[in-house]
């Protein structure tokens, strides 16, 4: 028997963290995809800070997203969102969950591409609808037919989300399953 101790294999989290380095892991995708929920879980597994850009916008403006849209409109909201994203894209590592439209905005997308590893949580309409219909507070869905609006947004936005570095298909499974798939996709980017 050899006296040599076999080196312990790196865990999935260790490999994912090594692949990320000092970059930021940025979750993008439509409302309800699970960017906030899964992002928080991934940050906790990697033991790095988690920031949600929607929460950060609400914190600095001391207004809710709905109030911001109502008072200043979407264009001003996007400008504020880009300023917040610029600050969050400083060297990390951290996990940043973005609001659903952030990656669609050209300025924010450029910042994310430069300083982050982006992961698109891709989901089918029914999965998204099931989740967003449970909670209010999404100004873009305050329409006569919000499910149709969500579908229209999918058509417009999915080709742009597809520019993200990684894509994980989310579905009706537990959040930790999706979080592990994100870690595996990230770990696979190294070597
Ligand atoms: N894999 C999952 N299984 C079950 N529920 C989930 C899953 N992922 C997210 N959810 C739930 O779906 C809801 C929406 O998720 P979340 O708020 O994380 O979406 P989001 O992508 O951040 O949306 P938004 O762009 O509006 O911020 C939450 O109640 C969350 O707990
Ligand atoms: O998809 C969007 O454009 C949005 C999603 C939310 O996260 C918020 O950022 C806001 O409601 C806009
Ligand atoms: Mg969110």
CATH topology: Rossmann fold
**Secondary-structure-derived class:** alpha/beta
Strand order of the largest sheet: 2-3-1-4-5
Number of helices: 8
| Percentage of residues assigned to helices | 40-55%
How large, in whole angstroms, is the Cα Rg?
Answer: 18 Å
User: How far apart, in Å, are the first and last alpha carbons?
Assistant: 32 Å
Average pLDDT = 94
Total beta strand runs: 5
CATH arch. level architecture:
3-Layer(aba) Sandwich
Question: Approximately what portion of the residues adopt beta-strand conformation?
Answer: 5-15%
The biggest sheet amounts to:
5 strands, parallel
Stretches where pLDDT is under 50 for at least 5 consecutive residues are: none
Bound molecules: adenosine-5'-triphosphate, (3R,4S,5R)-3,4,5-trihydroxycyclohex-1-ENE-1-carboxylic acid, magnesium ion
CATH level 4 superfamily: P-loop containing nucleotide triphosphate hydrolases
Q: What is the CATH C level class, in words?
A: Alpha Beta
Shape type = globular
Order of helices and strands: HEHEHHEHEHHEH
Number of domains: 1
Subunit structure: Monomer.
Binding site for Mg(2+): 36
Pfam families: SKI
Family: Belongs to the shikimate kinase family.
